[in-house]
Amino acid sequence: MSPDASFYDGTGRTVMVSGGTSGINRGIARRFAESGAKVFVLSRSADKVADTIAELRDLGAEADGMSADVRKAEEVEAAFARCAALFGPIDVVISGAAGNFPAWASDISSNGFRAVMEIDVLGTHHVMMASYAHMRRPGLIVNISAAQAHKAMIGQAHVCAAKAGVDQLTRTLALEWGHEGLRINSVSPGPIEDTEGFRRVAPTPEDVARRVATVPLRRTGHSTEVADLCLFLASDRATYITGAVIPVDGGAAIGVAPDQLAPSLGAPKR
User: Fold this and answer.
1) Is the dihedral of CA 43, 178, 9, 86 positive or negative?
2) 3-state DSSP helix/strand/coil percent for the chain, to nearest 5?
3) Quick one: CA dihedral 5, 11, 16, 21, positive or negative?
4) Which helix H or strand E contains 205, and what residues bound it?
5) pTM above 0.85, yes or no
6) Would you state the torsion angle of the CA atoms of residues 202, 204, 209, 210, taken in this order, to the nearest 10 degrees?
7) How confident is the model at residue 259 (pLDDT cuts 50, 70, 90)?
8) Rounded CA gap, 236 and 77, in Å?
């Protein structure tokens, strides 16, 4: 279960979550709703938007949303305009739409590579540009990144390139917009158990065990742990943090966990 998040009071705040109808992003939307914030979700699936709005309202939050494709600037702009018209200037934007499929680099078609780049990089750009016009100053943008941005992975050439682009957008716009009071950070989740993405890469208990063995803390994460970092970044305790890329991964991106090398190293000396 998530620790208490009473350090953040979302009352009177407006939060937009792009990609907020599934996985980690839905968990973030839920956590902000629990904090008292007004939450607006954006996703391609109209059915998922409706389902998420219903869940957030059941939590007692003012919530709404809109179906939009982040690859299309005009649709993203329309969603942000609707959010601002309903709830007022936006205080926090979470940009989490992403695309992924495992494939060797030599097997990725031009269209497949382009699709991931357009969802992740172009989509992030569209969300950030739409944010600029509708955000309260000071305000916060959090881009949901991934370890692939800085750690090469086989079968992930397209995602590695895309997430590296997302993190550089974070850093560059933190430089350009900081003087206006806009803070921009990336959050980089590791293996998060309660997501469809993790279930795809680790569908069996044996697969889960192999993944856990690569994590220094020897466990998977939970979407609430990512969400609570986003709440912290939105709180008054984080007002001097911008341009940062912050992992929530149990140390998975640091390097190879000790027990993966144990057969060749032998037992450690005490």
Assistant:
1) negative
2) 50, 15, 35
3) positive
4) helix 205-212
5) yes
6) -50
7) low
8) 28
